[in-house]
Amino acid sequence: MDHQFFKNIEKKTGVNMNDIFQLANSLQNANFKDENTVRGIIQRVSQIANKRVPKELEDKIVESIVKDGKKLDFNTINKMMNNGK
After folding, report:
1. How many folded domains does the chain comprise?
2. How far apart are CA 24 and CA 32, in angstroms?
3. Do 23 and 47 touch, CB atoms closer than 8 A?
4. What is the pTM of this model?
5. Could you read off the pLDDT tens digit of each residue along the chain, which spans 85 residues?
6. Interior CA angle at 61 toward 59 and 66, to 5°?
7. Which of 4, 18, 22, 24 has its CA 20 to 30 A from that of 45?
8. Which domain covers residue 46, as residue numbers?
9. Is residue 22 part of a domain?
10. Is-contact 32 66, C-beta < 8 A?
11. Looking at the domain assignment, is residue 1 inside a domain?
């Protein structure tokens, strides 16, 4: 992988690529049927992105993933975040 490519992303986004890679590795064996696991992931992503996720939105995301069985992907979370505004 191109080291400079990731440095450019870090510079533009302010997001540390090591944090992203650690998060990605932790997701590989995560149990998305466990509410605590899903909440932890949401909180970690929020922390990495430096974006606050209101409790109501977190609850909706958790319910959608744990109870409704939706996939945890960017489009699902993006739609929920945009509808929460």
Report:
1. 1
2. 14
3. no
4. 0.70
5. 578 888 888 888 888 888 888 888 888 888 889 999 999 988 988 888 888 999 999 998 898 888 877 666 666 666 655 665 4
6. 95
7. 4
8. 18-83
9. yes
10. yes
11. no
